[in-house]
Amino acid sequence: MNDKAETDTIALNRYILPLFDGKGSTKQNEKVQHFIERCTEADAFIICTPEYHNGISGALKNALDFLNKVHFHQKPVGILCASGSESTGLNALNQLRLVCRGLSGSVLTSQVVVSPDKINDDKQIDHEGVLANIENLIQELIPFAEFLKERRHGEYV
User: Fold this and answer.
1) Which residue ranges make up each domain of the chain?
2) What is the pLDDT of residues 53-111, one digit of tens each?
3) What is the chain's alpha carbon radius of gyration, rounded to the nearest angstrom?
4) Which end of the chain is flanked by fewer CB atoms within 10 Å, N or C?
5) Would you state the pLDDT for residue 25?
6) pTM value?
7) Is the alpha carbon torsion for 17, 23, 28, 34 positive or negative?
8) Within 10 Å of residue 39's Cβ, how many Cβ atoms?
9) Are 92 and 54 in contact (CB under 8 A)?
């Protein structure tokens, strides 16, 4: 991995946000404000969702609803899915890709599906192929993030 990259993790199962109300009143919530600030500061996103009934997590969709194009414009997005098997996950990834594109995110063409048989009892990925796919996604994301950051700040002509 690139030593210059800094990471920040938001685990939505621990970082519980209120339901988005569409009117903006829930944006006044302290956790929501903190979430929005963290996303504003990000130069790129790697978003992983479990697959639920061929779609993304409701908690993830709710969190993304608090954001808008300002938070994703000219920022690359890498997507991953934890699915029930190797042959599933694509519907959730396609849905996530669509939502992120709706937010003006530059979603990478590469994506990763992680099935339960690739995760050990400690809930860690222990399959070399999947780990290599994740590393490749990160290696694709970092230079794209650096390029787009320069563009956002007017350093690239």
Assistant:
1) 25-152
2) 999 999 999 999 999 999 999 999 999 999 987 778 899 999 999 999 999 999 999 99
3) 16
4) C
5) 79
6) 0.89
7) positive
8) 21
9) yes
Nearest to 105 by CA among 150, 135, 138, 141: 141
CA 57/CA 43 separation, integer angstroms: 23
Identity of residue 61: K
- Reported as a single tens digit per residue, the pLDDT across 23-49 is 877 878 999 999 999 999 999 999 999
| CA 12, 13, 18, 21 torsion-angle sign | positive
What CA–CA distances, in Å, run from 38 to 1, 11, 17, 121?
Answer: 22, 13, 14, 31
Joined tokens for residue 40:
């504003």
